[in-house]
Design a protein that fits this description.
Layout: H1 2-19, E1 32-35, E2 40-42, E3 50-56, H2 61-77, E4 82-88, H3 96-102, E5 109-111, H4 114-120, E6 127-131, E7 137-142, H5 146-165
Parallel strand pairs: 3-4, 4-5
Antiparallel strand pairs: 1-2, 1-5, 3-6, 6-7
C-alpha cells in the first residue's frame, strides 16, 4: 500500500509539472552562427543558460529600438546564467561594428546564412526567440514592442528562477 501511495504522489507531481508546459517546449533547431571574428558557434553550445536569439539588421528601425532594450536586460542578468546572441541577417559585409559602437552596444554579434534564415522561417525582423536552459523555445517575439520587452524580461526572470529550483 505504501508503494502505491508513493507511486501515486510521483505521478501527481510529474503530471502537475508537465501541465506547466515546460516539457512541451519545442527544441530550437540546430543552428551554427558565425561571430564578427569569423569563429563559429552553435546555438546548442548555449545549453545550460537561458538564451535569447535575436535576429536583426543595421537598417531596421524597430531593431534600433529593440537592441538597446536587449542590452539593458543583458547587462542586468548576464552574470546569472543568461546570454543574448544578436544575429545580424545582413551578412559579414554589413557595417555591424560601427553600428554597434554608435549604438553603444556590447552584445555578442553573430551572422547566419540566408539559407538558415529561410529554413527557420524568419521573414521579418526584429525576431526574438527565448530559449530555456535545455535549448527549448519558451516564447517568440516577432517585431518590437515595449510590452514585448517587458514580457521577455519577466520570462527570463522566471526561467532563471525555475532553473535555480532544480
Amino acid at each position: 500500500m505504501r508503494k502505491a501511495s508513493v507511486l501515486f504522489a510521483i505521478i501527481v507531481i510529474v503530471t502537475s509539472w508537465c501541465a506547466r508546459g515546460a516539457d512541451d517546449r519545442p527544441a530550437f533547431p540546430e543552428l551554427t552562427l558565425t561571430s564578427l571574428d569569423g569563429q563559429t558557434q552553435r546555438v546548442a553550445d548555449y545549453r545550460g543558460t537561458v538564451t535569447v536569439v535575436n535576429f536583426w539588421a543595421t537598417w531596421c528601425g524597430p531593431c534600433r529600438m529593440e537592441l538597446p532594450e536587449l542590452q539593458k536586460i543583458y547587462n542586468d542578468l548576464a552574470g546569472k546564467g543568461f546570454v543574448v546572441a544578436a544575429v545580424n541577417v545582413e551578412g559579414p559585409s554589413a557595417p555591424v561594428r560601427p553600428f554597434m559602437q554608435r549604438m553603444n552596444l556590447s552584445l555578442p554579434v553573430f551572422f547566419v546564412t540566408q539559407e538558415d534564415q529561410r529554413n527557420l522561417g524568419i521573414s521579418s525582423i526584429p525576431f526574438t526567440v527565448l530559449l530555456d536552459r535545455q535549448g527549448r523555445v519558451v516564447r517568440v517575439y516577432p517585431g518590437f514592442s515595449k510590452a514585448g520587452m517587458l514580457d521577455l524580461r519577466d520570462e527570463v526572470g522566471k526561467l532563471l528562477g525555475e532553473s535555480a529550483k532544480k
